[in-house]
Amino acid sequence: MKVDTFHFGEIEVLQEEIVTFSGGIPGFEQLTSFAILRFEEHAPFYYLQSLQETMISFVITNPFGVYPDYEFHLPISEQEELEISEEAQLAVWSIVTIRDSAETATMNLLAPIVVNVERRLGKQIVLHNSHYKTKHPIFRENFEMPSGPSEALKGVE
After folding, report:
1. C-alpha to C-alpha distance for 108 and 102, rounded to whole angstroms
2. How far apart are CA 154 and CA 157, in angstroms?
3. What is the pLDDT of residues 48-77, one digit of tens each?
4. DSSP, residue by residue, 40-93
5. CA 148 to CA 146: how far, in whole Å?
6. SS3 for 99?
7. Residue 145 has what pLDDT?
8. Considering the chain, what percentage of its residues have pLDDT values greater than 90?
9. Buried b vs exposed e over 47-80: b needs ≥16 C-beta within 10 Å?
10. How far apart are CA 37 and CA 59, in angstroms?
């Protein structure tokens, strides 16, 4: 299907790129249909583009490629809501914030976006009682950014 976007113009979105967020994303609860877009020249960053509002798009990345020790517990209630029955169905993303420059970009590890890749269902999960924050630096000393996607699931119980 063809989709008009503010940042990318008119693009073709495949059905397998569409994810439904039944409750929206916090702050954007009315928006329930998004596409995960990958542009090779932007790897390892992707875009979570609203299919309902052309102006709404989030930069996302796989948190395990940046923080290999990242881990959290996904509550049974969230697994049931997303219809997750096995790890192979799961992908985890973090929203990236770029303020002044890419070098100061941060990622939200406190509220990962969890997607059932088979059922195309997603939810941003707020991790309660967690030591993670909404602003973890992406580029750190002696850190080399991965050039492509890493494992979709690692460190999620």
Report:
1. 15
2. 9
3. 999 999 999 999 999 999 999 999 999 999
4. GGGTTEEEEEESS-TT-EEEEE-HHHH-TT--B---HHHHHHTT--SGGGEEEE
5. 6
6. coil
7. 56
8. 69
9. bbbbbeebebbbbbbbbbbbbeebebebeeeebe
10. 10
Structural domains in the chain plus CATH codes:
2-137 (2.30.290.10)
Which amino acid is present at 136? H
Q: What is the pLDDT of residues 80-99, one digit of tens each?
A: 999 999 999 999 999 999 98
Q: How far apart are CA 136 and CA 125, in angstroms?
A: 17
Residue 146 has what pLDDT?
Answer: 54
Please name the residue that has the structure tokens 């309660």: 128
Q: ∠ CA 51-56-60 to the nearest 5 degrees? A: 95
